Protein: Radical SAM protein
Organism: Caldithrix abyssi
Amino acid sequence: MKNKLLLINPWIYDFTAFDLWSQPLGLLYLASFLRRFEYEIAYIDCPGGEGHTRNKKYGTGHYPRTVIEKPAILDYVPRHYARYGISEEKFISRLIRYKDASAVLVTSIMTYWYPGVQNVVRLVRKYLPDKPVILGGIYATLLPEHAKRTIQPDYLITGPGELKTLDVLSSVLQQPYDREELPNSLDGYPYPAFDLLERPKYLLMMTARGCPYDCSFCAQKKIAMPYTRRSPENVIREFHDHYERFKIRDFAFYDDALFIAKEKHIEVILEKIIESRLPLRLHSPNGLFAKYIDKRLADLMYRSGFKTIRISFETSNEERRKDMYSKVSNEAMTEAVRHLTEAGYRPSDLEAYVLMGLPDQPVEEVIASIIFVNNLGVQVKLASFSPIPGTLEYRRAVDRGLIPEDIDPLLTNKSIYPLADPQTSFELFRKIRTFAMVLNESAKRGLRMFDEALFDAAIKSVANRITE
């Protein structure tokens, strides 16, 4: 008889949450991997289960939302705090169906979402008291000691989870496995267990794991395996298999470095999508590297059905960009937009991530970056910096006295601009976001709001109005 495992994607506890291609891909990969070793899988998806509307563009949508009491440490934030996902009652009713499970595996995403993990594990302990709890995921990897102390799992997995989890289960459940059956490349891993999802309207695609870059604000190298690619042929087979099985057109790439070695990888993949006439709509919620977008790649993107294009711009300040080990320059950004528009996109079809809230980053720099993007006709995707444990920017924030070494992860929530004065930060954040929204509306209408000849004066004027 197979051992049954219950896998859980916990609730999101936050001020806001929206499903922008947000399936728990790591957990779904783990599910299919464990099936290969004769485990039966059950699954509870707290955010993406019953009540998730998915009524927005390209299969995205709203999670069910229940306003709850804010943690005391967040009382100063003038926003409602909520639990996103199914009700506790529905969760419990599903949980007790799996009393025959041999173990419970819980994932974790953002470090400041740990209250959702905490509540899930609390309820598992109450209703399935004899089941070992194994915790993995991003939060568990970045803050293992906090997770051990706060969540108190029986076992904690850090980093890539498949092999480590298999070893833990083999020991705990006395179910040995043949090491000869372990995959020796990414092509040997099974596709994610998307059949566990309730009526998905989009699916995720990861063509490689990890990232060769080492940006100062990113913790990817602590979370993922060293940068490793799948073969283009393996990726195309997955596209075909999922399209035939689920009849879904929308796929979001989850790579952190999709365009690396583009001639041997993404260009081959897009060419084969075009040749196969698969009617796909492709999306890139993770930022794309502008310096790799030349005429050929832009043309392939347009012809293969790329619909959502988000470029990693971060800042127009070249000195800060060098310090962050960024992948773009102002010139490369301008050229990427030119190639994409010549391929057939409107500038307003494109988005660019702009970072706000870096340690010692002046408001003028953020405003300059927003105006630079608007002058290209591109929409701004404002990304609020969150100090991620283990990154260079986190260490800088601690060393400069901006945050304590042992800061509660709740205070690193990107939506509250954590590196500023708590009494003024939220209002400052709101004003900058409103400014970006106004310029995005102008971009949709093909308008540039600021004459390049008056660029410096405009930056100073807007920054003064926002900070006054």
